[in-house]
Amino acid sequence: MNRHRLHSHCWFRSFCLIWTIIFCCAALPVQAEEHNERSGEETNEEGAETPTEEKEEEPEEARPAVQPELESDAEGPPQIQLPDTETADIRQQIQALRTSLDQRLIAVEGTRNRLTYAESLLNRLRDEYDSFELRLEKAGLNLTGNYANLLQQRLERLRRQGIAEDLIGDIENQLSTAREEQLRLEEFEAIIDPGDDARDQLRSQRASLVRQLHKAVTEHIQALNEYYSTVSALQERVQAYQTLLQQRLFWLPSAPVLGLDTLTELFTAAAWFAKQMRLDPLRDAIGKSVQEHGAPITVLIALLALLLIKRRAVRRNLKANSQYVGNVGHDRIEFTLYAFANSVLLALPGVLVFAIAALLLMEGNDFFSALSAGLATAALVTLLLALVHNVARQDGLGDTHFNWHIDSLRALRRELPFLLAVIIPITVIMPTTATPGGSEFEDSLGRLLFTAVSFALSAFAHRIMSAVRSDRPQSKRLLFLHILAVVTPLVLVVASLLGYHYTALELERNLFISICWIAFNAMLFYIGLRALSVRERRLTLERLREHREGERKLAEARDAAESSGEGVPQTLELPEMDLEDINQQSTALLRIVISVIIITGLWLLWASLIPALQLFDNITLWTIATDLEGGDPLPITLGDLLLALFVGVGTVLAVRNLPGTLEVMVLSRMKLEPGTGYAITTLTTYILVLIGVVAFLGVIGVQWSKLQWLVAALGVGLGFGLQEIVANFVSGIILLFERPIRVGDTVTIGGITGTVSRIRIRATTLVDWDRKEQIIPNKTFVTQDLTNWTLSDSITRVILQVGVAYGSDIDQVQELLTEVAQSNERVVDDPAPAVFCVGLGDSRIDFELRVFVNDPLDIMPLSHEINAAITRALKEAGIEIPFPQRDIHLRTMADIATTQPEDEPIPRPRDSNSNLT
């Protein structure tokens, strides 16, 4: 506790010391004015030397720089209104066409003039760009701070003067309209016929005007196309020019090395800042801003009041959302989303305060407008840091939902308020150094503010990383991150004090944005991880219930098989994924997706700042000829190759990890039969592979028009050479979707009866009643007759034949057989058993007993039980079950001898023990 208090006191003293240096100097305006006068005299005395230094750099600005400023085009020519040939007078038609022709010619001339001006701008800008790039290459990094200032001025001018945003859109609209008019003119010209008489001469004149107008529209389209290409090239050149300036400014000193002059300027800066903070301009700024932005200010104030009133309820709701976290039966991802929304609501009041202040100063002078921009930036910074603070609060997202390290959460709750207290005021003040009156203090006041922020960030990083490393002090990776996080702001401070203030400022700004981007994606990762965890636990519970039900059914089948003498599979291989694989794959895929998003964002952020990242786009590996006539070949660079490899690796990783995520997030929410999810996952994998291959080939320049013949030939070869495999593959997909058979079904095909134990893409495995595994190609199930005993209903009919002797009471026999069937437990009540007298045989009366059983495995046990019961019942009733009757004729040896030829031997009996009836 004493250590915590000592730490708090140190932070408070440091904060007070920093702001005492900045603001207490404002009480010395008189000394600052005297210092300004003395410095002005010294400047006048040294004036003879300063122009000399500027004169050395003057050639950079001696030539008039290109001002690539193009405004939006005026409205194009009025749309051509073609007259009606049936109702309008021909002279009126000629007058209307002549007016449209004049307007179109004026438009063509105007477009050509703008095209000429744009081409001149483009040529001059290209020359200036090439010359400037050559000078920078020759100069290298041996350039002065004044030169860097000139580069900064040119960069700001290029940002102010550029191509109007809606210019290209206007050109495209004019092109679209002109093409439509060209088509309508062609149709109009096709329906008019010139003649030879006086009236026909007017028609001929009309036709001539139509042709001239069509020619003018065609020329206008050509001019607009050239103008569009020129403006697009000019815009690209301006962007390239800005990129070149930014890259070179990044490596040049933008300020002198810190010295006594820089320190003494702080007093002048403090006096200037105090002088700008006057009540009259502030009152005017607030009054104008209220008039211009009264409605949004009122809305924000009302929203702020509502949030403050509901703040306690939001806290209670945040705590309530953590109540069921971890309870498999009641846990939902919605609780985490609600908690995140509550954390945002708790962070909004401070954001709204700065947003309201920014709106109140927006319409002021340059100074207060800069403060308004700083307040807007402070609102964004407050949103980020306050959100992290509320996520780290006790019983919040980080504690209950994400299970973050408790020491790290305590450090965040303790250190973030101090970081906000340092960063927010500096963020508000910093834009004032970019105003016309405060730009001269950027090297002094700007660097002081930058130094204060950097020290605060370094101290904050040290405290947080110490807490993170508390449970893993031996981790070298965390130690490296700790040192890097602490040293980086300090290195940037040193660079700023040595004169590379612009470089340090841009680096720290990008680093702060990068950290915020990584933190945001980390939040998404943990929310996604939490969603996967909830679904996986629930899926585990459902799988456990299904597994128990499956074991119960299999045990029943085994009992029935033992009594029937048939063999059934010991286990059924359902096409489902292992839960451990699902967990690993879904987590891996989520990590891959978040990593791709982070890397993409960081690349876009840093690529324009660091030229080394653009090196890959400048190395051409090969070129691809395009299908456009006269078009330039398409270069394939090293960056394209790396992107193709990235696409290939991403496709492989996605294919390996997609099934688990698809199972957890999509298929488990759908009411699917066993095997359907496996089919969907398989097809999705094939589609993903196909998309990945096409994207890979497209990035490296392989065009489909050149591959289609190869693909066609490959398809034909596969069709002939692997037609059986392809047929089985397609049949397997049909089986998985159409589902004529399922795992566990009893089927009969090609004289083989068994239980389906596995369904694969090429073949299906049956286990017959002898426990032999029969591997049957899937094509057989699709093309041949198939009997599925258990597809939609496992109830099966059994027909037992019974014969009684002639003279038996038929009604009594029917009653006895019906009673036997109804007393058997294997016989179902619906459909009910039935007994019929079906025929009169040679020695008996034939009856059929028709009963239904629940499962085919009950057929043999039922036959045994029914036959035994019938035998007992008929015996007890005195009804005879007759033997088959045969008529046998006996002949004596004398009869045989009289009928037998003399040359044949007398046959002897085969078996002396034969019984004759």
Low-pLDDT runs of 5+ residues are: 1-63, 573-577, 909-917
Structural class: alpha+beta
Describe the biggest sheet?
A: 5 strands, antiparallel
Query: What sort of overall outline do the alpha carbons produce when their principal axes are compared?
Result: extended
User: Strands across the major sheet, in which order?
Assistant: 6-5-4-3-7
Specify Rg, calculated over alpha carbons.
46 Å
Structure description:
The protein has 917 residues and is an alpha+beta fold. The chain has 27 helices and ten strands. α19 packs antiparallel against α20. The radius of gyration is 46 Å and the shape is extended.
Note the main attributes of this structure.
disordered C terminus, alpha+beta, five-stranded antiparallel sheet, 917 residues, 66% helix, 27 helices, three-stranded antiparallel sheet
Any chance you could write out the topology, listing elements then pairs?
Elements: H1 2-23, H2 29-45, H3 50-57, H4 59-62, H5 90-139, H6 145-160, H7 167-190, H8 198-250, H9 260-276, H10 279-309, H11 311-320, H12 333-360, H13 366-391, H14 397-401, H15 406-429, H16 442-468, H17 476-497, H18 501-564, H19 579-606, E1 620-624, E2 634-637, H20 638-665, H21 676-699, H22 704-721, H23 723-738, E3 746-749, E4 752-759, E5 763-768, E6 773-777, H24 778-783, E7 787-788, E8 796-804, H25 810-823, E9 834-840, E10 845-853, H26 859-876, H27 893-899
Antiparallel strand pairs: 1-2, 3-4, 3-7, 4-5, 5-6, 8-10, 9-10
